[in-house]
Amino acid sequence: MRYRAKLRFCLGEDSETVYRSLEAEARQRGPAKGVVRLSMDGGCVGLDIEARDLAGLRAIANSFILLIHASVSAIRGSYRGGGLKDKSPH
């Protein structure tokens, strides 16, 4: 059985920059863990992830979500003085 997730991130003016920051990572994923297809559509970054098991799908999705968070935080922190708010307990 194959597992699949489609994720879409509409990040306004940062979408193109985030898309470019993810391109190399999306190309590196091998078929052993899963396949990631990256797209830009309507100003939003799209991820289509396919994996052979649920744990692999979750791992790939988590990795890309963290990369997106890091990219947006860097962009917004560098250019606008603020990133995404960290709501995790410290």
From TrEMBL:
Pfam families associated with the record = Pcc1
Q: Family assignment? A: Belongs to the CTAG/PCC1 family.
NCBIfam families, per database record = PRK14887.1
What species does this protein belong to?
A: Aeropyrum camini SY1 = JCM 12091
Q: Which InterPro entries match?
A: CTAG/Pcc1
Q: What name is this protein filed under?
A: Uncharacterized protein conserved in archaea
